[in-house]
Amino acid sequence: MFEADFWLPESVNALAAGSDDLFVFILWVTVVSLVLVMGAMLWFVFRYRSGKAANRLNPPTHHLGLEVTWTVIPTIILFIVFFWGTRDYVRMSVPPASALEIRVTGQKWFWTFDYPEAGVRVQATQALDEQRALEGSPVGLVVPVGVPVKLVGSSVDVIHSMFIPAFRVKKDVLPNRYTTATFLATEEGEFDLFCAEYCGTKHSGMITKVTVVSEEDFEVFIDELKEVSEGPVDGATVFAQGGCAGCHGVTRDAPPGVGPSLHGLYGREERLTTGEFVLVDENYLRESIVNPMAKIVEGYGPVMPAYVGRLSEEEMTALMLYLKGLGAEDGAAL
Ligand code: CUA
Predict the structure, then answer these.
(1) pLDDT by residue (tens digit) across 155-191?
(2) Architecture of domain 100-230
(3) Which of 17, 18, 187, 191 is deepest in the core (most CB within 10 A)?
(4) Fold that domain 4-93 belongs to in CATH
(5) 197 CB less than 6 Å from ligand 1?
(6) Dist. CA 184 → ligand 1 center (Å)
(7) 334 by DSSP, 3-state: which?
(8) In the CATH scheme, what architecture does the domain 235-331 have?
């Protein structure tokens, strides 16, 4: 009962290795506290029960040593839990640079997984999953074993939450914002992926698998997908059709336009008209597209039109990948 496996499926995520130990540690602290507190309470009930000739007139005044003890010990435990938890949380949250990026899109009531490097997409509805299982193909989110994976999640409609118990991963996916989760699978196999945020009638049907395969099988899987896939929306096309190029240059030596150049944009710091600095990450990019007035780069005017509601989630994902890639081939920060 004091093994994490009693409560949870076996952990197959190398990056979450410490979190089960922390869970068991907190469980033990809780059990010991419960026994001490309840034991003392029962003892006092017995000791001072009605009819017992105990002295109730002069209760003892406060006991300094006792108060210090019950303050210091929980404080120490709190700090242990805090630092232990923070260390593990950071390890699970910061993806290694080599991580394979997969975009996860939640919508009522299925998941879509995009592999931007390969330009392929998997949709995981219950019907498609059943069909794939019958064909003997890998089901749902397919990832290679022993390779760090970074999931970038967003939602088309309401809040969903991707929950993969065997990886100890649970992350909300939200409309209009990106969240990330990282894992490194240590074993091949099929593991459950649930939606863990009530999202409407078929919330309970928003369930699929994470299939961990060998690196060779993963390549085969991607190659097969490339053949059948019609290819997701192309970010450069979205950029051109959205009229973005009218104001923003995308090459290293583009002349200054109405808006800032987007070459090597991702990961750099921009100075805003307010004097603040902001790191260009996906959430900043997204905000600057849907609501450009929110943060304006110093030296530029508030002239960009808002794209809120004008791009589908799919187009937004494609555009985001395109923007992240600008200048990356020249060695600019990515
Ligand atoms: Cu999506 Cu619950």
Answers:
(1) 988 999 999 999 999 999 999 899 999 999 999 999 9
(2) Sandwich (2.60)
(3) 191
(4) Helix Hairpins (1.10.287)
(5) yes
(6) 24
(7) coil
(8) Orthogonal Bundle (1.10)
